[in-house]
Amino acid sequence: MKYCSTRGNSELVSGAYAIKKGIAPDGGLYMPTEIPKLTEDDIKALCEMDYAHRAADILYRFLDDYNKDELLADCIEAYSEKNFPGGAAPLHQLDEGGYVLELFHGPTCAFKDMALQIMPRLLSRALKMTGEEKTALILVATSGDTGKAALEGYRDVPGIAIKVFYPVHGVSKVQKLQMATQEGENVSVCAIEGNFDDAQNGVKKIFSDAEINKKLNDGGYILTSANSINWGRLAPQVVYYVSAYCDLLKEGVLKSGEVLNFTVPTGNFGNIFAAYIAKQMGLPIGKLICASNRNNILSDFLTTGVYDRRRKFFQTMSPSMDILISSNLERLLYLICGAEKTAEYMARLNSTGKYKIELDELNKIKETFVGYYANEAHTMDEIGFVYDKVKYLSDTHTGVALYCASKFRYYNDENMVTVSTASPYKFAKDVLAAVGGEADGDEFAPLYELNKLTGVEIPAPLATLKDKTVRFTNVISPDEMAEETLKILS
Ligand SMILES: *Cc1c(COP(=O)(O)O)cnc(C)c1O
């Protein structure tokens, strides 16, 4: 299996190389040159496997340059009971035909763990397979969830070091504590006086600064990134769609070949694009409901075919979906319109802030995708409504998705799986308010109060956070990021 750029102007590379590099030299994203197919018999065989074996089976279809046994060993470790107590991707039934796919049982209580527990292992092997002798230094700018999940995934992985920058006032107190208490010998965390864009721009500058890159190279390091444009983060996300289908098939909820719909709370379009890949593989997926919050650029695009990022940015209670440039949409454009058109649209986005796709392209996208959005009031109401009705507690991102799913299900009675991307305890303050509670006190007060009110257990990684030692207290200005990064050499 070879990988090409979505913009068509880069050489074909192996899976390992695509994962090591992250982004293609022409600025495009790596895509497999063909999508491997799952037959009905393949799906039946997958039904009999546990999550780790399903993961190894699916990943090997995309990464056939890897050693199959090593891939399986990596998946068994990544998706162990220790990392995902209670299972990697359990389904919870809400009502007749309605399910929630819980992807938040990993070490950081957000769905990023599903990819970031396996990706470091894939990168570590990729470095060996491509003869890389230097240590890979991963730089991350984060607005919260990605930073912690990457730190937890990459901690103590041989041949890799990781440094995370976050905006000092741009993440929640719990998120800040999660990062500041990170354990591991190869990790470091640093706060920036500024917002997420300052952190992001600082990292981008370091990546493109030849002098810094040379200094790092001479000192034995190459720079790489861990964000969701890397194929190594996308491929593992295909697995849970296949796995959810298999679980429902096994339970007899679905008959062989019967379609299943998914609703996905969407920000960078990575999660929902993985579902589209699963559909392209032959998994009987009907519609994919792309759920946005008040930053509804994607539902506008899916309705009109116009992608226009020249709009107001809103901070919402579902911050991981507060995004105006959904990078992975480029991969969908590539599959629908081809590389040449994709390069053209991306150039237009860069220069004018918008592009418009052709009507036949939009119609092709609409065969699968439906775009809905939920504003803040919809989201609060939905969390409260679902809790009252079936005693199911959902986080704010999942609340957006549940609202959009119910809108779709109003006129469609096929089975629907709503993807849940975070533990309600990660956004306890808003969730507590949504179910009618309130709390005074420190950042942990809403967690305890929510637990008291609902009886839902606080996940261990959040419950034990209070007792962890703070290791990282450094706060710097954005201009000092390069200097801070070079400290790894001393
Ligand atoms: C990252 C994230 C999302 C958005 O996922 P994309 O792949 O960027 O679309 C949604 N919810 C939570 C909790 C997240 O952390």
Structure explained in plain terms:
The chain is of the alpha/beta class. The protein has a domain at 91-109 and 232-465: Rossmann fold (3-Layer(aba) Sandwich). It has helices at 15-21, 40-47, 51-62, 68-78, 112-116, 119-129, 145-154, 173-180, 196-208, 210-218, 231-250, 270-281, 297-304, 329-337, 339-352, 359-366, 376-390, 396-409, 428-434, 445-454, 460-463, 481-486, and strands at residues 3-5, 30-32, 91-95, 98-102, 135-141, 160-167, 187-192, 221-224, 260-265, 285-292, 306-308, 354-356, 369-373, 416-420, 475-476. 51% of the residues are buried. The structure holds pyridoxal-5'-phosphate.
CATH architecture identity of the domain at 91-109 and 232-465: 3-Layer(aba) Sandwich
Number of helices: 22
Helix percentage: 40-55%
Rg from alpha-carbon coordinates: 21 Å
Largest sheet: 6 strands, mixed
Question: Strand order across the biggest sheet?
Answer: 3-4-14-9-10-13
Give average pLDDT, whole number.
95
The CATH C-level class name of the domain at 91-109 and 232-465: Alpha Beta
**Poorly predicted segments:** none
The secondary-structure class comes to alpha/beta
Bound molecules: pyridoxal-5'-phosphate
The number of distinct β-strands equals 15
Distance between the amino and carboxyl termini: 40 Å
CATH topology type of the domain at 91-109 and 232-465: Rossmann fold
The outline comes out as globular
Question: SSE layout and pairings?
Answer:
Elements: E1 3-5, H1 15-21, E2 30-32, H2 40-47, H3 51-62, H4 68-78, E3 91-95, E4 98-102, H5 112-116, H6 119-129, E5 135-141, H7 145-154, E6 160-167, H8 173-180, E7 187-192, H9 196-208, H10 210-218, E8 221-224, H11 231-250, E9 260-265, H12 270-281, E10 285-292, H13 297-304, E11 306-308, H14 329-337, H15 339-352, E12 354-356, H16 359-366, E13 369-373, H17 376-390, H18 396-409, E14 416-420, H19 428-434, H20 445-454, H21 460-463, E15 475-476, H22 481-486
Parallel strand pairs: 4-14, 5-6, 5-8, 6-7, 7-15, 9-10, 9-14, 10-13
Antiparallel strand pairs: 1-2, 3-4, 11-12
The chain binds pyridoxal-5'-phosphate.
Pyridoxal-5'-phosphate binds at residues 110-112, 145, 228, 265-271, 320-321, 397, 421-422.
